[in-house]
Amino acid sequence: MSNRLKVTPNDLSAFWMPFTANRQFKQAPRMFVSAKDMHYTTSDGRKVLDGTAGLWCVTAGHCRPKITEAIQHQAAELDYAPAFQMGHPIVFELANRLVDLAPKGMDHVFFTNSGSESVETALKMAIAYHRVKGEGARTRLIGRERGYHGVNFGGISVGGIVTNRKMFGTLLGGVDHMPHTHLPEKNAFSKGVPEYGAELANELERIVALHDASTIAAVIVEPVAGSTGVILPPKGYLQKLREICTKHGILLIFDEVITGFGRLGAPFAADYFGVTPDIMTTAKGVSNGVIPMGAVFVQKEIHDAFMTGPEHMIEFFHGYTYSGNPIACAAALGTLDTYKEEGLLTRGEELAPYWEDALHSLKDEPHVIDIRNIGLIGAIELAPIAGSPTKRAFSAFVKAFERGALIRTTGDIIALSPPLIITKGQINELIDHVREVLRAID
Ligand SMILES: Cc1ncc(COP(=O)(O)O)c(C=O)c1O
């Protein structure tokens, strides 16, 4: 086998990198060549502590044996089976395992290959559900400012991040947005869910008054918004949203692509907050990010509403060639086994107080204007450099990488979301890296 550590690509130009400053990267590439547990190894042989679980997805840590073995075995046994009108045993096994883990009543699961596809699936399901129930006028979708729901057209339409929307035309029609819940003037440096802002859920009533409930299919929110820089729901906010949706017959979709599978210290944010949505989108942690996979959970009533008409007819005209791909299913089963054996879906609860104290110890460091935390998620918001938004945080990201820590930045916010196997010592190490970086950058 070749020594990958020594291999460097000849030319970096062909690959147009996603969500990347391509020109900056190609002048000073940052390459990972291997990974194990909490660390990556770079092409120049340095260990880098993973403070972000890859992209919020490597929840059980890297190259875990159960997952690797499951993939190897499955690849040699059944590589692919058609997803439409055919099945294979482990996709059913996985669906059963997942619904056993899901909040009560979410008895069915639809497989996709990413968070973005899970979102599109959920939005289509919501509109189609009302139609099969005889309420075909309910087509409007309500998202939220600063929401992130992936990059497909439905997702960017209900999403609320301007850079992800402004280049792409008129997007979906019939979409409205609630305000975000980021209130730094009242909630800065809150520990856990902030005190103020539950009344922002009442904005949904204003939207209902404008459009009428009979035209609205669904509301989609991230219970904790991650990609926009970690925005937490104020105390009581999600409960209020649930009540308003129920009152008006509007489906509530929780986008749990980052909060699903233990990130908050409970299997799902729905468990953590005690609020059950009608549809729940997941991806990332379902297969530890190893093989692309997404899963959309639905309440029994929604699934059953489709199960009408002649039995030879397809009930829901939607699906992907790789929905429930056998190797992805094997990866997911290996992931669920790892979570179970190591108690990872609730480990965040034990670590959360330590994590919170460690994060908030950065309060008086240079540039810091807010710190937010919940479960094993943390955000450190920096004052932007006047006239150059995002530049300060990006410098922090590059410096951290050079020092030996992978952090993630969005806008001028550092977001941290380490694998759930992180130790207290590694939490200290990660926070010390951030502290030194904050002291070193302009
Ligand atoms: C809440 C949420 N929804 C959807 C997505 C999109 O997932 P993917 O990149 O797998 O399409 C993400 C990705 O970060 C996310 O955080």
From the N-terminal CA to the C-terminal CA, the straight-line distance is 44 Å
Total number of beta strands: 15
Task: List the strand order in the largest sheet.
Answer: 4-10-9-8-7-5-6
β-strand amount: 15-25%
Q: Biggest sheet, in brief?
A: 7 strands, mixed
Bound molecules: pyridoxal-5'-phosphate
Helicity level, as a percent range? 25-40%
Which spans of ≥5 residues are poorly predicted at pLDDT below 50? none
The chain-level structural class is alpha/beta
What's the helix count?
A: 16
- Mean pLDDT, to the nearest integer, reads 97
Shape: globular
**Which value, in Å, is the CA radius of gyration?**
22 Å
Describe this entry's structure for a reader:
The chain starts with 21 loop residues before the first helix and ends with a helix. The chain is globular and about 65 Å long. The protein has 16 helices and 15 strands. The protein has 442 residues and is of the alpha/beta class. The strands form three sheets. Strands 4-10-9-8-7-5-6 form a seven-stranded mixed β-sheet, sandwiched between helices. Strand 8 (251-255), helix 11 and strand 9 (279-282) form a beta-alpha-beta unit. It binds pyridoxal-5'-phosphate. Pyridoxal-5'-phosphate binds next to helix 5.
